[in-house]
Design a protein that fits this description.
mainly alpha; single chain; 591 residues; Na/solute_symporter
Amino acid sequence: MNVTALDWGIIAAFFIISLLIGLFTAKSAGSSAKEFFLSGRNMPWWLLGVSMVATTFSADTPNLVTDIVRKNGVAGNWAWWAFLLTGMLTVFVYAKLWRRSEVTTDLEFYELRYSGKGAAFLRAFRAIYLGVFFNVVIMATVSLAAIKIGGVMLGLSPVQTLLIASVVTVVYSSLGGLKGVLLTDFFQFFIAMAGSFGAAYYVLDLPEIGSLSNLLAHDVVATKLDFIPDFTDPNVYIPIFILPIAIQWWATWYPGAEPGGGGYIAQRMLSAKDEKNAIGATLFFNIAHYALRPWPWIIIALSSLVIFPNISDLQEAFPNIPVDKLGDDLAYSAMLTYLPTGLIGIVLASLIAAVMSTLSTHLNWGSSYVVNDFYLRFIKPEASDKELVAVGRISTVLLMVLSALLALALSSALDAFQILLQIGAGTGLIFILRWFWWRINAYTEISAMAISFVVAIFFEVINPKIGLIDIPADQSYLKLIYSVSITTIGWLIVTFLTQPEKDEVLLAFYRKVTPASMGWKKVLDRYPSEKEEKGTLGKEIGLMITGTFMVYSALFSTGFFIYGKMMPGFMAAAIALVGGIIIISSWKKLK
């Protein structure tokens, strides 16, 4: 591929602007730990929402979508589309609760909701487990995507790619803190969107493709277009559609789609000006993430089936790519090599933006756990703000180094995605219920973590060797069902066998976040003078359902129009419009 001086100029300008933003925000970010990790809790919804979208627009996301589409068609995307249910639940139920909690990180929540050694253990363990180990795995999958892009489009070695991508990201992340990340995300979001739409538009004009109508009529592509999978084969529709919609969205834990909110999504909500801005940010994120972005990726993925129908075609076209890095996800980068001068620079800048926006968020989020929930809480409670910012900057660098090393050992983003889902299977329901059910305690969460991890290791490592439970290759989805069932039964048993939290702890939490009182009545009945917050949970669930239909209708309306099916497209658009009016009206009424 011919990358000209113009393309390199565009890329250089992108790097320079990103670095300048980090330098611009360095002084304010370094003034205190709260500024470094939460931007003073004064951020508007639109900046936070765009940042969430930019973060989830990782370079490995179009690779993942391409992998899914090539294997399972458009309908295969329900593996992540189903998480919209989680997202809308966070928007209308949990965003305001998180903002009311006024914690610095979602891990600090543990010592607000629970007490004693169990709460302290949870906070310390998850600070290292999530902030370091789990976070490093996520960043490694992003870095893996960067490696594949660098190898296919620029002919760079994995080490060269990681050095270029990581150094700039670490500099502006460590200097500018969350505010630097947010402002850089805002800039990078528009670059990323322009790149993906521009690439999709140009790919359709390639001689091998001809036009959108030619692409859709192609024999290989025509079988991949359905929104809903084939319901004649349970081994297709159960893992692709039924499992994600019925179980996965509420039962599994995955960064960016945590049941009840959490991770960097919680960090954004906690840094919002108020509850209204927290809700607006998560609403914008879910609309943009699920309805605005997928189709350019899907179009490029479908086009790749025409030009590179098999992995062997990719290997022949790119012989310099290591064998362990070859896969269907490589097809996205392969398609981008056909782009012309100028557009190549924009697309490369957009992919670099996708890598850097995700890495920068995870670096800041992970270091916030290390600093606030481990170092400050357990190592040096008297540490000054200056020292905490310094530790945050050091941990940012170390996290990047660890993730780069792991990226060199990975081969597929989809493999990592499935493993992460398996490890978190069965824990999601706790994160939904702990706000509304007084009986859940610290040992509920500890047992769920332990059981889900052991079960994941059993099904992923031990069972394939000893064959204790027969799981046919075409029914691998049974692993998730078994894992969710075993983990959920396990933590429920532990919950009822252990003592609940003390009343004073429960009441302090209830007064602080004021959730709906339905699940707290047994505690409140012991204190007749305590005010019961009736709340509006029923209305919030209704808005969640409305929001879900709105976004899915917008997503499929676009798809119908692309497919040339105008009447279904207009009907879906009308449903999306009505849903949008209802939701905007409700949001404007908030104080």
